[in-house]
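thread: overnight batch results

M.L. [08:02]
morning all. the overnight job finished for the chain we discussed friday. pasting input first so we're all looking at the same thing
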Amino acid sequence: MIFWTIVFVACLVLLIKCSDFFVDSSLIIGKSLGIPQHIVGITLVALGTSMPELASSVVSVLTDKSELVMATVVGSNTSNIFLVLGLTAVFVRKIDITISELKGVLPFLILSTIWIIIGCFDGSFGRIDACIALVLMVVFLGYCVRSGMIDDMEGEVDANINISKQWLIFFISIVGISLSATYLIKSLEEISIILKIGGDIIALSALALGTSLPELAVTVNAAKKGKQSVAVGNIVGSNIFNSLMIVGIPALIQPLTITENITHFSIPVMVVATMLFLFFIIDSKITFKEGIVLVLGYLIFIGWLFTKGG
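M.L. [08:03]
and the structure it wrote out:
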């Protein structure tokens, strides 16, 4: 148990770091090749925020554990709102929100959540569901570009940067992502066997929490620096990417199996978390007390999962 827990944590850390190196090197290589920077930026915004979830989800499908994909996404979305936003509101005492900066993306958050519900209704998220999700993702990215939410990132490559080194980092990071994601899923499977708890339970809790840690760091730091809308926008964007891209790409490879834990409890909890978020921001802020409510919601969610799993 101790061995596989160490493997799980180590692979999760490696996956997150390799994802960062992948995005950074890709941006530099894109500039050096003269690829339009808004194209590079658009694609890597999605990859950069959700690469750990994407890598682990693709490996789950390729190893015939497709039920872990939706578990990871639903768990991550729930963690982002309940835990990440909740802890941020508790740490900074109050998150001030400029609704006008979010009004264009909130419909996508609602729509992506609704599509998860519809797609999982019959116990399977199929290829047609995936295609629709990815079309919605393209529309969302298009909106982000037109509204200026994604920087076009124009500029020349720094003359001091070694492009050959960046190519080496690029390929090494791909190998690192592949290996870490593979053994992350393997360790999750072994831990679930030892604890006699379903793999989807571990994915909904431990894996989802781990892949939400980057969002937690970014959100808390942004809020502390007074960039409150950036903090909230990070969470909204991450949840949209998860619901559309992280579900859509693996489901194109193989239809996703949806367990009863997901349809009967976890998706309803994600919906409740999303509705609470939308309700709390009506007055353009998330208060300390509302942050406490969100964190308590996460603790109840996790407590139920392990009670059910045990």
